[in-house]
Amino acid sequence: MLRLIIFITAMAIAATSAHAVPSSALKGSGLGVAADFKLAQSNGHKLIAPSAAARIARQVAPSSKLLNVRLSGGGSPRYVIKARNKGKLHIIVIDAKTGSVMRR
């Protein structure tokens, strides 16, 4: 749980300090969700923060352990979040623009 809190805090800090990156939006920098989020923001996309997506996933699967948060998509950006509950893997997809749950 402490690792998750540290991860979410780091994502929130990274998301609030976005810098312009000369590349096309959501191409995927390979540096992780924070870098992809900054890249999308610098290209004019208004997206929810990775920490907000993690919070939404927590509401969808409250007893699950969040394993991974990934930003993907192009014209329809979304966060793909992997969570585990009682040994079972769940994929939660959240619209990165609106925050709505696309898939549980």
Any idea of the CATH class? Alpha Beta
The secondary-structure class comes to: alpha+beta
Q: What portion of residues is helical?
A: 25-40%
For the biggest sheet, the summary is: 4 strands, antiparallel
How are the strands of the largest sheet arranged?
1-2-3-4
Give the tally of β-strands: 4
Distance between the termini: 21 Å
**Number of continuous helical runs:** 3
pLDDT < 50 runs, ≥5 residues = 15-30
Question: How confident is the prediction overall: mean pLDDT?
Answer: 73
Give the overall shape, derived from the CA principal axes.
Answer: globular
**Whole-number count of domains:** 1
Radius of gyration: 13 Å
Strand fraction: 25-35%
SSE string: HHHEEEE
CATH fold call: Nuclear Transport Factor 2, Chain: A
Can you tell me the CATH architecture?
A: Roll
What report would you give on this structure?
The chain has 104 residues and is an alpha+beta fold. It has one domain (2-103): Nuclear Transport Factor 2, Chain: A (Roll). It is 35% helix and 26% strand. The protein has three helices and four strands; from the N terminus they run H-H-H-E-E-E-E. Strands 1-2-3-4 form a four-stranded antiparallel β-sheet. Strand 3 (88-95) and strand 4 form a beta hairpin. Helix 1 runs parallel beside helix 2 (33-42). The longest helix is centred in the first third of the chain and has 15 residues, at 2-16. Mean pLDDT is 73; it is low at 15-30.
Describe this structure in a few short sentences:
This protein is α+β, with helices and mostly antiparallel strands. It is 35% helix and 26% strand.
Give a quick set of tags describing it:
four-stranded antiparallel β-sheet, 104 residues, alpha+beta, Nuclear Transport Factor 2, Chain: A, 26% strand
